[in-house]
Every structure is written in C-alpha cells, then in structure tokens.
Write a structure and sequence with these properties.
The chain has 110 residues and is of the alpha+beta class. It has one domain. It is built from two helices and seven strands; from the N terminus they run βββββαβαβ.
C-alpha cells in the first residue's frame, strides 16, 4: 500500500479541503479520509462511507505526474506521499469524530 495526501488551497463547495488515501498496487483508493473546512471528518472504505467520505473511481497519479504532466492544476492543491502512520492516525481520528457526533456509516448500494 502507498499513502497520499491532497490539500486544496481553497474550499470548493462541499468538497473536502484535505483528502488522504490508502492506495493499492494500481493506485486505486482502498480507504480514504476526508477533512472539511469546518473541521468535520468523513471516511470511506470499499464497503462503507461516512459523512460524505468517498473513494476515487480513477487511479491516483504519482506525485511527480501530478506536478509535471500538465494534466492536473497543481496551483490549486499540494499533493504528496505520506506514511502509513500518518494515514492511520487520521483514519482513527475520523472514526472517533464520527462516533462522537453520532454519524453512522452507510453501506454502498450493491
């Protein structure tokens, strides 16, 4: 697994301002953490989503591709690798936030 973090410079509608992803060997999201501008959290995995959390349906680019391919607007966000420990700490914080605010997970439609 690899771990990436995308931090938007501005708040865009109801999108998260920070998106952290655990990626499989093909760079598809396995688990994700969403942090919103109001300080609330959401998270998702392959079975559930909570408080607007979502998985990307396209593979994540490599960090150098994000900054050098011209395909992504790197002026709007910072994108970098993070450690498994960083991701797990955010994952646990999101679960705690949602439990403390009685935000229940929802299952994806089959």
């Amino acid at each position: 697994m690899t771990y990436r973090k995308l931090c938007y410079h501005e708040c865009i509608d109801d999108w998260s301002t920070v998106y952290m992803a655990e990626l499989d060997s093909e760079n598809y999201t396995v688990r994700a953490v969403d942090i919103y501008s109001d300080g609330s959290y959401g998270y998702s995995d392959e079975k559930i989503y909570v408080n607007g959390g979502s998985l990307s349906d396209v593979p994540f680019p490599a960090v150098d591709e994000f900054y050098h391919s011209g395909e992504y607007d790197s002026d709007m966000a910072d994108y970098y690798d993070i450690t498994k420990e960083d991701f797990e700490a955010a994952w646990e914080a999101e679960i705690a936030f949602c439990r403390n605010h009685n935000i229940a997970p929802k299952k994806y439609a089959q």
